[in-house]
Amino acid sequence: MITSFLVKSLDRTIAVAVAILLLLAVIVPALNLLTAPDHPLHVPTYMVSLFGKYLTYALLALALDLVWGFCGILSLGHAAFFALGGYAMGMYLMRQIGARGSYGNPLLPDFMVFLNWKELPWFWYGFDMFWFAALMVILVPGLVAFVFGWFAFRSRVNGVYLSIITQAMTYALLLAFFRNDMGFGGNNGLTDFKDILGFNIQADGTRAALFAASALALAGSLVVTSGIVGSKFGKVLVALRDAESRTRFLGYRVEHMKLFAFTVSAMMAGIAGALYVPQVGIINPGEFAPANSIEVVIWTAVGGRGTLIGPIVGAILVNGGKSIFTAAFPEFWLFALGGLFVLVTLFLPKGVVGTAQHHLARRRQARAAARKEDEQTDLEDAKPMAAE
Amino acid sequence: MTEKNPRTLLYLDGVSVSFDGFKALNSLSFVVEPGELRAIIGPNGAGKTTMMDIITGKTRPDEGEVFFKGDIDLTKRDEAEIAQLGIGRKFQKPTVFENHTVWDNLELALNRGRGVFATLFYRLTGEDKRRIEEILATVRLTARRDDLAAGLSHGQKQWLEIGMLLAQEPELLLVDEPVAGMTDAETAETAILLKDIAKTRSVVVVEHDMGFIRDLGVKVTCLAEGSVLAEGSIDFVSNDPKVIENYLGR
Ligand SMILES: Nc1ncnc2c1ncn2[C@@H]1O[C@H](COP(=O)(O)OP(=O)(O)OP(=O)(O)O)[C@@H](O)[C@H]1O
Ligand SMILES: [Mg+2]
């Protein structure tokens, strides 16, 4: 059952993308660790982390594509799930610091000592264990999405209204995480990490491993999403995206379908956030900013919604552009991003990958038609020959 | 009051619904027996589509009873549940899934597990494949099976939708204006198709095309202003002075 699900998911473009990601997971760390710094093919560590960060953004965009591209749910709050996963990882990393913090408290993170707290809050229990934190990385965003989706989809909130309440959700979380008494480090968030799984988080080897983990997580998620999208369930998603009430009259529980896709998507976003935090070294409430979620929508639109590969390409292109652009003209980046969104919406509504796929399909069709015609003329040519 | 018979497939009694004070259905009573093919006529705004909305759970009645197969109260169930109980519906405006192929449209409509996991791990069995091929042949779309539904002609979309209804294997089929926009030849074929379908299940057809209704040759109900004006054979109904005044004479 599961194997057929996975085999079906591996259509050609997806298979190529997965192969590239697996290759990157090996080559980039190798070029970083095994070549001398002056070697022409050497990839410096800062680049490894930068690209690792892009891969986590790509995973976030892929997660959004599952709900936006295939169910028509324009979530403007997906960065919230990313941030929740990031916080879960951040809490693990904080507890790994142990007595090495500025206050030397073996149990309490620095910010708690600073706030004069005497005990570890109950919700920090267990985060000293990696497996527990890893579980929370998936469960917490999944649970938030499940509860949110349960109410929203059951009340049949759709379209713009749904988008607005997803923005409200991420904004509410932003305000909550800003508060010191919430116990997540308030304004400053969680930072000054030292180790992950016993390895120095700054070390080249750790950085390379985190990059590889990001590439693998993206490849794995691509296989899973393409399996979902390629199954009959995926067809139901597209059906309800295009004609929701018709789908209900066929007997499908539209709200359950959406809830499943939304929850899986939030879990993927959580994994992306968890891989992001150790690579950038900090998580703070700014990650919940409504604008962050909107940026994810732009990446996805630029790459091409509903294509799975598109959001990955879009996230890497836009963020690569951002890194270059903000170095040259920092104050113009937001204008450039806004302009890009307008241009893509007007001239490339299918996005970069969507448009390319469209043209390829058209060319293939034209070639097939031409071949048919050739065969026909060949036959006609053959007839008089036979007569002679 | 209609007498409730345990054999009755569909039973509506005293159903009323209003939209912003406008009474779309006014104490409507209506009964369909198993295996019956019934035609419904009536002027625009008579409440024909609204009646289907009530039966399929899209609209809740303000008052009145709606029972399926004797004792299943349809007013307490939602669209998905009612569809699973065996009531299929074709809309007035043809709605097929345009971004899916003809084949996928039928596969989606097939009467199989509709849950998240049932669909996630669904595999097309030989039996399901044969069933879809059979329906494709019935609605004459075999040649278009791999084309997107968006590319079908209007009449073909109507037929695909009828095919989707067949795939659902409902006990009761509600068909809203199936021949609107069809050519005369298509209309005649549709009448044959519906009569054929009605051999194994009950069908309720709403239509304005009197020629088509005549072709069907079944009991006719005329609705007007949300209630039943007349019921009987086509000749009986079309000679009723109230029907002539309200509908045919216009
Ligand atoms: N959801 C709704 N909200 C408001 N008014 C409605 C709604 N649904 C139906 N109506 C009104 O109820 C009346 C009955 O409409 P209905 O669609 O049932 O008529 P009909 O008999 O199907 O007509 P037609 O032959 O034009 O399809 C109309 O006046 C319509 O405007
Ligand atoms: Mg109508």
UniProtKB/TrEMBL annotation, chain A:
Residues 364-388 are annotated as: Disordered. Signal peptide: none annotated. GO terms for molecular function: branched-chain amino acid transmembrane transporter activity. GO terms for cellular component: plasma membrane. Pfam families: BPD_transp_2. Keywords: Cell membrane, Membrane, Plasmid, Transmembrane, Transmembrane helix. InterPro entries: ABC_transp_permease, ABC_transptr_urea_perm_UrtC, LivM-like. It is found in: Cell membrane. The chain crosses the membrane at residues 12-34, 54-85, 129-153, 160-178, 208-238, 259-277, 297-320, 332-349. It is a multi-pass membrane protein. NCBIfam families: urea_trans_UrtC (TIGR03408). This is Inner-membrane translocator. It comes from Sinorhizobium medicae (strain WSM419) (Ensifer medicae).
Automatic annotation (TrEMBL), chain B:
The keyword ATP-binding applies. InterPro entries: AAA+_ATPase (IPR003593), ABC_AA/LPS_Transport (IPR051120), ABC_transporter-like_ATP-bd (IPR003439), ABC_transptr_urea_ATP-bd_UrtD (IPR017781), BCA_ABC_TP_C (IPR032823), P-loop_NTPase (IPR027417). Coiled coil: none annotated. It comes from the Bacteria. GO terms for cellular component: plasma membrane. The keyword Transport applies. Keywords: ATP-binding, Nucleotide-binding, Transport. PROSITE patterns: ABC_TRANSPORTER_2. GO terms for molecular function: ATP binding; ATP hydrolysis activity. NCBIfam families: urea_trans_UrtD. This is ABC transporter ATP-binding protein. It comes from Sinorhizobium medicae. The lineage of its organism: Bacteria, Pseudomonadati, Pseudomonadota, Alphaproteobacteria, Hyphomicrobiales.
